[in-house]
Amino acid sequence: SPAIVWFRRGLRLSDQAALAEAASRGPVIPAYILDDETPKHRKMGAASRWWLHHSLVSLDASLRDKGSRLILRRGVSADILAEIADSTGASQIHALRHYEPWWRNAERDLKTRLPDGVGLCLHDGNYLMPPGSVTTGSGTPYKIYTPFWKALREHMPPGEPVRTPQTIDAPDQWPESDTLDDWELTPSNPDWAVGFADHWTPGEEGARRNVDAFIDRATSYDDRRNLPSEAGTSRLSPHLHFGEVSPTYVWHRVSGRGRDVTIFQKELAWRDYAQNVIRQFPDYGRTGYRDQFDAFPWRDFRSSAVRDDFDRWCEGRTGYPIVDAGMRELWATGWMHNRVRMIAASFLVKHLLIDWREGERWFWDTLVDADYGSNATNWQWTAGTGVDSNMFVRIMAPLSQSEKFGAGDYIRRWVPELADLDDPYVHDPEAHGCKPKDYPAKIIGHRAARERALDAYREVKN
Ligand code: FAD
């Protein structure tokens, strides 16, 4: 009897333990279920859906090369898998483990629904180490990143990748499948993702190409990773999020090339760390870890003035060139440079005094790498509400960050109104008296914003 492989975010054939195990035992039914119900308000955001569409096209093509195909269904995962198992007489369901709370609930639910004798076999493989397995001496999970990284590093390098199946046997009969186009995952009318394809090739092959292209750049990673004007980082985040390449493979490919590569591996470990955090605190995307902030005087999001400020942030019209460039890069490409993510997030939370959860939601909808664990962990880190040390009072000055990290070309690229301004004017045209008419004035002065934020913080300090 066939086994079902339940694809969620491990959309690849290589180093895919669930697929490898199923294929070694007999016929396989690879299935992807578009499940907007199980995650409830956490259903996949719009930019991620664009990515998913193209990634599924790629996965189906790779499966067909091996004599198989991808079955597409829409609805509650547990219901549909139980039904496919029943109708095909499947003996087992294989899947990679996921740590978002809704997926863990779905796994539990599924186990109770499956026909007698059908098992759900969960495999590791989307992280360097299985989340929860790196613990302190007394066996408790780490909350803070640095000791987590030190402990994780002791287990490295991770195990060898699992072998890619040469062929994948088809079942005697395929279950019904939807057609991908009917899911309407890509936008139309207007097609706001029209530029995404210039920047990305979703799918396993695109992921491999990105890894290959990064290998040489990896040796100068530490020097260049904070410079938004340069392509110093790997741009692997959406590929890693959708599991088009395994982090183990990436780790092995870059290993042994010097100090900068270790810094890169240390960043890769942040991704693992974020999963460890949501495994311990499943509600982390919504609930701050420090209850000190429960009474924080965020500006009232129901007020239209605050909504207007939020809209200006989303649209990249704050009058702070580095913030605006970042927000426009996000809109145009579904991705933003990490340094600029930090600046833009800090600006929303501290300069505009808007609750970090609003920013988290915007990123959730607009990032192609939107990841529940990584997004929540980074937003809570920025806001000072998270498990790491409280960083609220470290208020980033966007204009000096922009100069320090040489963001001139980056701004000229993403903010066309400022394309004709040279350094140093481009970082703060208003202060230099050369702000073009069609570029907005600053939404709030830096000093005033800083004082307002620190005053607000004083209310909850103790
Ligand atoms: P590289 O510098 O090449 O790093 C390699 C990989 O390491 C990345 O692809 C990513 O998987 C991982 N990584 C690096 N930095 C981090 C980090 N701080 N946290 C977690 N993983 C990291 N990353 C996401 O993948 N999804 C998100 O939803 C997300 N939201 C963020 C929100 C905010 C407010 C901030 C400040 C950061 C967020 N990040 C998120 C982290 C980081 O910005 C991106 O992972 C990084 O910019 C991706 O670019 P890259 O692949 O070129 O990274």
Topology:
Elements: E1 3-7, H1 17-25, E2 28-34, H2 46-65, E3 71-74, H3 77-88, E4 92-96, H4 101-113, E5 119-123, H5 145-154, H6 196-199, H7 204-217, H8 221-224, H9 237-241, H10 247-254, H11 259-280, H12 304-315, H13 321-333, H14 338-351, H15 356-366, H16 372-383, H17 398-404, H18 408-414, H19 446-458
Parallel strand pairs: 1-2, 1-4, 2-3, 4-5
Helix pairs in contact: 3-4, 5-11, 11-16, 13-14, 13-18, 14-16, 15-16
Bound molecules: flavin-adenine dinucleotide (FAD).
Could you characterize the architecture of this molecule?
This protein is 45% helix and 6% strand. The chain has 462 residues and is mainly α. It folds into three domains: 1-126, HUPs (Rossmann fold, 3-Layer(aba) Sandwich); 127-158 and 203-280, Serine Threonine Protein Phosphatase 5, Tetratricopeptide repeat (Alpha Horseshoe); 291-458, DNA Cyclobutane Dipyrimidine Photolyase, subunit A, domain 3, CATH 1.10.579. It has a five-stranded parallel β-sheet, with helices on both faces. α1 (17-25) links the parallel β1 and β2 (28-34). It is globular and about 75 Å long. The N and C termini lie far apart (62 Å). The relative contact order is 0.12. The model has no long low-confidence stretch (mean pLDDT 96). The structure holds flavin-adenine dinucleotide. Residues 225, 233-237, 240-241, 267-268, 270-271, 274, 338, 341-342, 345, 363, 367, 369-371, 374-375, 378-379, 382 line the site of flavin-adenine dinucleotide (FAD). Belongs to the DNA photolyase family. The record marks 298, 356, 379 as: Electron transfer via tryptophanyl radical. Residues 1-128 form the Photolyase/cryptochrome alpha/beta domain. Pfam families: DNA_photolyase, FAD_binding_7. Its cofactor is FAD; (6R)-5,10-methylene-5,6,7,8-tetrahydrofolate.
